[in-house]
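Subject — a protein and its fold
Encoding — discrete vocabulary of local shapes:
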Amino acid sequence: MTAPPALRRRIFALLATIGFAVVAVLPQLSLLPSARAQEQKAAGQTVRPEVGKPIQAAIELLKSKRGKEALAKVREAESVADRTPYEIYVVEQVRAQAAAAAGEAGAAARAFEATAASSAASARERLQFLAAAAAQYFVAKEYAKAAEVAARCLKEGGTDKAIRTIYVQALYLSNDFARAAVETLADVRAEEAAGRTPTEVQLQLLTDSYQKQRDQTGYATALEKLLAYYPKRDYWLNAVYGVAGRAGISDRLALDLARLKLATGTMQTTNEYMEAAQLSLQAGYPVEARKFIDQGYAAGHLGTGPEAERHKRLRDLAAKSLGEDKKTLGQDDAQVAASKDGAALLNAGLNYVLHGSSEKGLEMMEQGMRRGGLKRPDDARLHLGYAYHVAGQNQKAIQVLKTVQGSDGPASLARLWIIHLGRGS
């Protein structure tokens, strides 16, 4: 398991803030007579010269970033027999930093963890050493151990955001996707509650954690949140095609999906443009069909290649249908107005909106909603919201789209429209 490149860069930037290489806490040794040394001796916090001298040499080498040489000096000190608990603490502390400087992350992590466990460490030092241990376990790719130690650091009072990040990302990289999702979602909600924008990395990790669990509902929700804050085309592609491929999405929504693709710039193939235009013609909206075809030509997907003549025939058909539609527009208004349910009013009203007669068309659609008797009222709300968008009334469109419910696709499409329109698109 590896983190995505952006995620990985963020991780190592955070590691640097808590002592990725060498923690800047070097022990102060009492090797010479002084009043302070006498106090430390009484407290058992001194080291004998045979231990202290090689350790002092190791510290000087560390200051010059000579980690491997410092480790050799640490081993000299370690070879002294009958070391006191405080001497062991000092030796392990310097070993940890020397190993980190030498690039031996696993050894550094274990030494930092041992140092944190020493009774000689103060409460503040204990948290610092646990943080360093978690960071070094992460560098060593011992992710489960990194998560364990980071959790311990946080539980004991650690407040460094970098440690929290290492904890959550270590959960993810150790394949504990369920806990990674729970913890990341908590972080995202905390940022939102504080009026801050969650980071893109947090939201990426949340979507990935749900995806690894095959939790489609969680994934879709997280991806929508990622889109709301970071509306990049790749995320739109994932969201739109995720809806298209999700179980339970009805074929009847194919035209609605095509409309969203066109609006978000996520139509990718010639077939998509062709199918969208054909669906619009079948639905009785030739003006919309022409829009799909024109944009297909503009994007270079239509009018080229071995099927260019087929594309031209479709364009000609759409032009002919549009001409006929303009001639007959309004002829059936009396019959539509007398219909028992609102479906005919909704369809005729949307066609008026597409032709540019927004005021009349929207009034017909609203009348159709009030008349009721609709087989699929959420589809109708989705279409009404789309009509308000076409009419240039995006805030009204959002209000209507927020009322769309259902489990077979309308609500999913409505939420994506709300995100798209909410960005001022």
In short: The two ends are 37 Å apart (CA to CA).
